[in-house]
Amino acid sequence: MIVGTFLRYFKTYQGINYIPITDEDQFCGLVGNNGIGKSSVLESLDTFFNSKPWNFNTVTKKSGKVSTKPQIVPVFLIDKDLFEGDVLAKATMLNTIAMSISEEDVSPSLKSHARRFIEHRNQLSKKVNLENFLLLPIGIDYKGDISVSLFNNRSLVEALLGVDVETSKTSLDDSGLKEFVPLLRSLKEKIDYIYIPREIDPEVFTKLETNEIQILMGETLTQILSKRVPPRQISEINNSLNSFLDTLSDELEVYSYRTPTDRQQNLRKNDVYNLIIQAFFNIRKLHKKQGDNWLEISALSSGEKQKAIIDVAHSLLSKHRGSGSNLIIGVDEPESSLHMSACFDQFDSLYDISRDCMQVIFSSHWYGFLPTIESGSATVISKSESTHMFDQINLAGYREQIKQLTASSKGRLPYDIRLKSINDFVQSVITSTIGENPFNWIICEGSSEKIYLSGYFRELLNIKRLRIVPVGGAREIKRLYNHLSTSYEDFKDDISGKIILLSDTDSELVRYEVSNYSNLICKRMVNCSSDKITKLVNIQANPVSPATEIEDALNGRLFLATLRTFSEESLGLLSFLNDITDEVTDKSTRFSLDLKTSQWDKIDDFFNSDNNKYLFARRYIEKMNDDYEVPTWILEIRGWLE
């Protein structure tokens, strides 16, 4: 994937700029004010990968390309196993330079840019084990020649030409950089990049014969036709047609239909394929089913067209293309023309797409994805006078990072991103619950809760347009409830969908007052020892103990069956499971399993190590069937939704 990029005099960027894109995940957002340079990043990658025209900075137009030297130099993080031979040697050389470069290795004018890269590289190394990867800064200049930006220094000269080369030679010239042409060519061959600009024509983009759609499918129309119209059939057509002409020549006696030359020409494979593409595929346009009718994409609203592009990309990647591991998709303002109520779904689809491909990079003015996406990256682009500034946020810990950035940026951040992200998300939730066919929402603490709830309510996801969103803890649930309740008061007569906020009962309970709204329900789950049942109670209500997480409130029999699938992987920790011979009931986990405190502690240790909480949730849902009773608190939520 691309972890960052150097841009020099491209579109809005003057001078040299290093833009961090991600420090870990393949879901990557670029946010900031209009005209700040978000789409410039996506467009530059289209120029780099797909040879689209350069969009030079206005200074370049005045001062000339020779003096400004426009460049696009992405920084790739690539698996070592993708290269071999001399290409691997050159890649290893660049990686060594990128991993060891310091401010002292560059000229004074480049020190600040080197510092930005080094800070980002160090952050990346904390998140990703770089031993099996190569960090490769390599791109092109305005002439199409190789550029490695500020990494073209004395260290690179010595690595390529040897330490004995004259000390005055502090960088490679164009001929020296040509040594890296095979590496650049190999990278471009291994990675596909699709750019979806905001002003794209959806009708043209979604036609089957476009390069973008064929890349999303993972095969060209010619390849598709070669399977469905094999050479044998073309040969049969030629034989049949030639037989007809022979018969006709016999009937005409001294006349014959022939080609101008003596060589009799047959239909070639490509002739037939091109004819089929023109006569069969070219006349077909994307349609969307509306009730019993099919509407041509041109008849859809602007928002529906934008949604159709993402829907088609999502479906082709997940259902048709064998693998998207070599595909990067750039999307400019995916929320463009969408109603606020549809924004969450659009970004949820984008996140799903990013799981099926190498990387999704998008620009956006909708900040509602920040508190709701489980993992990803967002780069906040701002400006101080004429200088671009970049703050890269890891969304897995975004709340903490926002606090740090707000403190360290000294007013540089253009607005309170945390507040705007919550406001955007709340607006999306409220507006989506209004109308005859409303959305319904369950807002929970973490990703494992989302997995369990999605499993138990899977049939309601479509029927009730249910959306389940993890927001990262009870304190965030409280924050969202306060925002939602304020908006709810203004629209309570119009809201017909349900908004359900669900918290655990923590040992240090997050307390706040909630109102008894009919469609805005805020509850926490707690195990009630007297009744031996998991209850859903108001946040401020009793009981306030014991501490109850969702794993404590599952079907106990299914919980044990799932946990036993991990016993071989965690032999020492979970070996006591083999000694459980008593019949386990379908009651809540804590009440159905008669375990010692020390054994519960071992189960807690299991859940708190590695990624076990997530993995357990996945296996639990996979094993779930009608043989296991549904927990009563799940049935209670189902009742609210139905």
Account of the 3D structure:
The protein is built from 26 helices and 19 strands. It is α/β, with parallel strands linked by helices and 642 residues long. The model has no long low-confidence stretch (mean pLDDT 91). The strands form four sheets. Strands 1, 2, 4, 5, 6 and 7 form a six-stranded antiparallel beta sheet that branches. The relative contact order is 0.08.
Q: Which helices and strands occur, and which strands form pairs?
A:
Layout: E1 2-10, E2 13-20, E3 27-31, H1 38-50, H2 58-63, H3 65-68, E4 71-79, H4 85-100, H5 111-127, E5 133-137, E6 139-141, E7 146-147, H6 154-161, H7 174-177, H8 181-190, E8 192-196, H9 202-205, H10 211-217, H11 221-228, H12 231-252, H13 269-281, E9 287-290, E10 293-296, H14 302-320, E11 324-332, H15 343-356, E12 357-364, E13 377-384, E14 387-394, H16 398-408, H17 417-432, E15 440-444, H18 447-456, H19 460-463, E16 466-470, H20 474-491, E17 499-503, E18 520-528, E19 533-538, H21 556-564, H22 571-574, H23 589-592, H24 597-607, H25 612-623, H26 632-641
Parallel strand pairs: 3-12, 3-13, 8-11, 11-12, 15-16, 15-17, 17-18
Antiparallel strand pairs: 1-2, 1-4, 4-5, 4-6, 6-7, 9-10, 13-14, 18-19
Helix pairs in contact: 11-13, 14-15, 17-20, 18-25, 21-25
TL;DR of this structure?
This protein is 43% helix and 18% strand. It has 642 residues and is of the alpha/beta class. The chain is globular, with a radius of gyration of 30 Å.
